[in-house]
Design brief:
By secondary structure, the chain is α/β, with parallel strands linked by helices. The strands form two sheets. Strands 1, 2, 3, 4, 5, 9, 10 and 11 form an eight-stranded mixed beta sheet that branches. A three-stranded parallel beta sheet has the order 6-7-8, with helices on one face. The longest helix is centred in the middle third of the chain and has 17 residues, at 103-119. Helix content is 27%, strand content 34%.
């Protein structure tokens, strides 16, 4: 299915110094970027077949999380039901040791950590992940895992993976898309 993601502006390469292209949009076909350009042109060419999603922010390639291994394999992200007892921030060190972590608990914590990363506009992670439960959670999330040096952001060009985020003026992430799927939407 075709989807046009329309935002106030588009920064196709994600570089902070690159000017925002006002009125531009991204056309997504399945898991790939089909085209970018002025919204009016994309709508005229594909509007009858495409659904349109409008976002009040700047659309840019998603962010890469270089500290993903530490965030997901060395920290416990509490369940909201544990907030009264454990708080909402990730636990590390002695607090983590006291929890007596099991594979099941590592997997659940990793899924909650991944949700927070998606809510921050993350579309790729530095790896590798050694804990099987964490590795499984990451694989199921659809996040791209990059081993070694930090990758250059994926430019939003035709044929590229449809992995991007839309950020409000205050820097908060409004939406995250992985392989053309909406995986986070700020309420």
């Amino acid at each position: 299915m075709l989807t046009i993601h329309r935002a106030r502006g588009l920064r196709p390469d994600g570089a902070p110094g690159t000017p925002v292209r006002p009125g531009h949009a991204v056309l997504v076909d399945g898991a790939r970027v089909a085209a970018t350009g002025p919204y009016e042109e994309l709508a005229a060419a594909h509007g009858e077949r495409a659904r349109v999603r409008t976002w009040d922010g700047v659309l840019t390639p998603g962010r890469h999380e270089p500290d993903a291994v530490a965030l997901l394999e060395s920290a416990y992200w509490p369940d909201p039901r544990e907030a009264g007892e454990l708080g909402t921030d990730p636990l590390t060190g002695d607090a983590l040791t006291a929890l007596g972590m099991t594979d099941t608990r590592w997997g659940a914590a990793a899924r909650r950590g991944i949700q927070r990363l998606l809510a921050a506009g993350t579309t790729s992670l530095a790896g590798p992940f050694t804990r099987p439960a964490v590795r499984t959670a990451v694989a199921r999330s659809g996040l791209r895992v990059v081993e070694g040096a930090s990758p250059a952001p994926l430019a939003l060009v035709p044929g590229a993976p449809a992995a991007f985020a839309v950020f409000a003026d205050d820097g908060t992430c409004l939406v995250t898309v992985l392989d053309g799927r909406l995986v986070h939407r700020r309420s």
